[in-house]
Amino acid sequence: MKLLPVISLLALTSATSALDNGLMRTPPMGWMSWERFRCNIDCENDPKNCISENLFRDMADRLAEDGWKEMGYDHVMIDDCWSSMLRDKDGRLQPDPQRFPGGIAKLARYLHDRGLKLGIYGDLGTHTCGGYPGTTLDKIDTDAQTFASWGVDFLKLDGCYSNEEEQQKGYPLMSKALNATGRPIGYSCSWPAYRGGLPPSVNYTLLGEICNLWRNYDDIQDSWDSVQDITDWFFDNQEILQPEAAPGRWNDPDMLIIGNFGLSVDQSRSQMALWAIMAAPLIMSNNLRTLSSEARAILQNGAAIAINQDPMGVQGRRLLQERSQIEVYWRPLSQSASALVFLSRRQDMPYRYHTSLAKLNYTAGSYEAYDVFTGKTLSGLSAATEFTVSINPSGVVMWYWVSFTLETPAWLYHSRLGCTRK
Ligand code: GLA
């Protein structure tokens, strides 16, 4: 172990127990409808963009044909507004018959045939946030069984229209009900987001035992302000949140909005870098049919993805907030590698930030770095070597570091540069 003792401590905390369904040992990846397509059900006037089986099939085609699946983006997740306003005569949820004429089971088969997985949305409460039928406590078993019978692989269980007591009962009950179906179904719990996201109202030990991931905080919107607000909340509370993440159990700062309307190219890199540091689920919500080449390159950046998906599964931390409005983030990775992100909150011009690994608490040794967004490498650095990074306003510089002190063979170093995921 080359870095400070703090790292060994962090590695230890990742031994926290996780939901025992064997799923999501690295943060889930894929695509979800909500942020980009919301509750647009106007298929008559907006057939390409409304919540319908065509939208999910289209996105599945894109994931399968445009190189996404190979990079790890393998889930297509239906969010709210998919269901009929009424349950069927046996009390089961059913999809809207006009918008999902083939039914969910057929859509699941379409995805499975392409090596993809299907996620669906439910809400513990009387209604979903969009006003569709919810899952009250008496419906938990039925809904779990229905989802399993359709071949669903993932459930996002929202928490609109339920109270604290119902959530306390319902989230663990759904976990049991999903397990009882015998089908492996990843389980995302929005519970903490409805209880302020912090202890004592939120019990992260319990959440880790019953859910694979959980939404801790507010919904992301299509803006840099929203990305910054979420980032600040997660890192301001890192003492509490960071130790809770581990293989099979992840904090979820919400969807990637890269490729939409609110972020510049620099800001898009910033979201990708910060989500990689946070070990966040990489769930895009964008229009994969019309993505720009810049957005695609950022979302398919092999090194950023490899950092996000590091098998050790230790969430990163904010190390510094400088008066210059430069912030430094760090994540320890397996094989004594690490990632560093330099983020500029400035609004003037590229800022030249001077530092060294020693100043960032790295121990003595010999280091090499790979610049995640430019592909350049730096070698022969010692912890004491002073260096300068030029960081664009609201942009990042992101480095993947390898320590050579253990005499890592060159082939191992090269095979670890993330670009090998393809
Ligand atoms: C809540 C959730 C969102 C989305 C909407 C759907 O706001 O946090 O992610 O699922 O409900 O109505």
TrEMBL record:
Tell me which EC number(s) this protein carries.
3.2.1.-
* Keywords annotated in UniProt: Disulfide bond, Glycoprotein, Glycosidase, Hydrolase, Lipid metabolism, Lysosome, Signal
Q: What is its main location?
A: other
Q: Does the keyword Transmembrane apply?
A: no
Q: Which CDD domains match?
A: GH27
The subcellular location is: Lysosome
Q: PROSITE patterns from the xrefs? A: ALPHA_GALACTOSIDASE
Alpha galactosidase A C-terminal domain residues are: 313-395
Which region is the signal sequence? 1-18
Q: Which GO terms describe its biological process?
A: glycolipid catabolic process; glycoside catabolic process; oligosaccharide metabolic process
Asked whether the UniProt record includes Flavoprotein among its keywords, one would answer: no
InterPro entries to which the protein is assigned, alphabetical: Aldolase_TIM, GH, Glyco_hydro_27, Glyco_hydro_27/36_CS, Glyco_hydro_b, Melibiase/NAGA_C
User: A single GO molecular function, which one?
Assistant: alpha-galactosidase activity
A single Pfam family, by name?
Melibiase_2_C
GO CC terms for this protein? lysosome; membrane
Instruction: Report quaternary structure and partners.
Output: Homodimer.
Q: Which family does it belong to?
A: Belongs to the glycosyl hydrolase 27 family.
Name of the featured protein: Alpha-galactosidase
Source organism per entry reads Oncorhynchus kisutch (Coho salmon)
Q: What is the lineage of its organism?
A: Eukaryota, Metazoa, Chordata, Craniata, Vertebrata
